[in-house]
From TrEMBL:
Name listed for the protein in its UniProt record: DUF72 domain-containing protein
Recorded superkingdom: Bacteria
């Protein structure tokens, strides 16, 4: 087994300490909707072993427009100017502020990796590409790994060029689409036929073959059976000849 492969779920339904006895990593969701107080994140960090890894989703103010239904969970009030300036990696002060908040969250949690999940409306048009390039070219990465999940209509060669030029990992559900960065895999499994889907052992066995043998990789389950499926996948991966 590749010991560099991190397996976990998107979010935690139990205590952090109990979760950390089962998995080596978790993808934090709260930082996307409404980043918690840094004191809360510091407590989370102290509840798990030092080698446990948090990855975080970048705050939605960076990636999603204000009309997104996800903003219903935003506790901060936005002015009309701010509402017009959020999302799509726009070169605005509110997006830059959202990045600083995201960065602070990552630093407190000692996260190594940040996921930028885009809405389906973030499509392959020149304005969006320009904003994406500008954002990742100007921000201070602080040594973090950046992962990008485009969910709109994009051509694979365009994604490949952007990931190469901007040093991004291409995030996919591997049962839906192939990553263009197979040596830098970040998989998010949403359920093949919807959120209630439970993966078969044979499917998860196939998944083990898609992972690099000696490179860091992440596999996160985001379906209703995510804990059971992640545990089964962990067992299969540990038993697989690599």
């Amino acid at each position: 087994m590749n010991s560099k492969i991190q397996i976990g779920t998107c979010g935690i339904s139990s205590t952090k300490a109990a979760y950390a006895t089962l998995f080596s990593c978790v993808e934090i969701q709260q930082t996307f909707y409404q980043p918690p107080q840094l004191s809360t994140l510091e407590r989370w960090r102290n509840e798990v072993p030092t080698d446990f890894e948090f990855t975080i989703k970048a705050w939605q103010l960076i990636t999603h427009p204000a009309k997104s239904p996800t903003y219903k969970r935003l506790k901060r009030s936005l002015s009309e100017v701010e509402r017009a300036g959020v999302g799509y990696f726009k070169p605005t002060s509110i997006v830059d502020e959202a990045w600083q908040v995201t960065l602070s969250c990552a630093q407190v949690l000692k996260a190594k990796t940040v996921l930028f999940q885009c809405p389906a409306s973030f499509t392959q048009k020149p304005e969006h590409i320009s904003h994406l390039v500008d954002f990742f070219s100007r921000i201070d990465r602080k040594g973090l790994t950046f992962c990008w999940e485009p969910r709109g209509t994009w051509d694979k060669p365009v994604i490949n060029d952007l990931c190469k030029d901007l040093q991004l990992w291409h995030v996919v559900d591997p049962f839906t689409s192939a990553t263009v960065t197979p040596e830098h895999s970040y998989f998010r499994l949403h359920g093949r036929q919807g959120w209630r889907y439970k993966y078969e052992s044979s499917e998860l066995a196939d998944l083990t073959e898609l992972l690099p043998t000696d490179k860091p990789a992440y596999v996160f389950f985001n379906n209703s059976h995510m804990k059971a499926d992640a545990l089964l996948f962990k067992q299969l991966l540990e038993a697989a000849p690599r």
